[in-house]
Amino acid sequence: MALEKSEQKGVVILCMTTMMLLFSYKKDVENSEFMECLNQMSSGHSHVRRTIEQCVPHHELLEEQMKRQTGKAALNRTAMSLLAAYNYGRYAIVTVEAQGWYGREVYCRYLDANLRETEPAIRTVVFPEFIVYCCGLERAAHMSITQTVDEAVVLTAPVMQNQERHYKYDVSLCLAPIYGKNSVWLLLAEMIEYYKLQGIEHFFLYVKDMEAYSKRDCLYKNRNFSRFLLFGDLDERLTPVGNITVAEFISRAMVENPRCGALSFEPRWVIRSSEPPVVYQGEDTLRKHLPMIVFQNTSTPPLVRGDTAKYALDPNKVILAWVHDVKIFVPYFESCNVTSQSAYIR
C-alpha cells in the first residue's frame, strides 16, 4: 500500500529526527541507517522492520532446543506444503506438512485478502518440526512460507485470528492419526459419544494425510481457542475414578495445580477378545461389540511410568508435544503425573 504525500513527509521528518539523535551520540553514523529508514517509505511499508527475535516469545529457549535437535526426526525432505496459519498478535505460527525441513531457513510472507503482498518478508527457521514461527500482523489475511526472500508466492494459508484468550471451549479432544485398514467406524462412534457424556465439547479429527503434523497443528489451533486439550488414540478412553467427568477432572486438576502444563495419565491394558464389526446390523451389533461394554478384562498399570502414557494439556503452556509426552514447556510449567487411583487410560 503506497503512502500519501503527507504520510511520506511525516516519515522523512521522523527519519531525519532519528538521525539527528544518532549523530548527537556518535559522529560516524553512515548514510545506510538513514537510507534504511527511507526504504521503509519507498517500499510502501510504513512500519518499522522487525526481526523474528523481537516477535517470538521465548526465542532463546527455542534456539537452545533447536541446537539440541529436540524433536528432530530422520525424515526425507519433501516439498513444502502449508496446513494453516494462526495469528496470536505479537507472533504467528504457520503449520506445514513438509518433512525434512527441521532448522532450515525460510521466510514468512504476508498477503492481503486479494493475495497481494503487503509487508516485508521476515527471515525465520522451521522449528519445531512442521512449525514456522513468524511475526504477527493483524492486517494479513493470508500467509505463505518460501525458501527465499523474493521467491514468487504460490502456496498460501488463510490466517486464523487467535489473539485474545476468549476460549470457545473448555476442554477439547485431539484425535491421534489413524493407521491401518481395519474397520474403525464403531470405535470412532463410541469415542465421540463417550467423551460427549464426559463433558468434552469439541473434537478435532484430521482426514488429510494423517501424519505427525496433525498433532502439532491441533496444539496451535487451540491456543486461545480451547482452554484445555486432551490427546488420545481411537481405541483409548480416559476414565476418572469416582463421580466426576473427564472434563471436570482435567479442569479441576489444572486449576488447582497452576504449575501443571500437562497431566500425564497411566494406561491400563484391556484384553480384546474379538475384532470390531465391519458393518452395522442393528442394535445387536452394538450390544455385542461396543468396547466399553464388552471388554472389561483390564491389566495392572505398566511397571515403567510413561509407557504409552497419554496426556491433557494447556495449549498456552506447551511449545512442543509428541504422541506420549510433552517435549518443550513454556518456562515455569511442567508435566504432572496422575496416579491410576485418580484417573487412567483404558
From TrEMBL:
It comes from the Eukaryota. GO terms for molecular function: glycosyltransferase activity. Its EC number is 2.4.1.-. One of its GO terms (cellular component) is membrane. It is an enzyme of class 2 (transferase). It is a single-pass membrane protein. Keywords: Glycosyltransferase, Membrane, Transferase, Transmembrane, Transmembrane helix. InterPro entries: Glyco_transf_92. It is found in: Membrane. The keyword Oxidoreductase does not apply. Belongs to the glycosyltransferase 92 family. This is Glycosyltransferase family 92 protein.
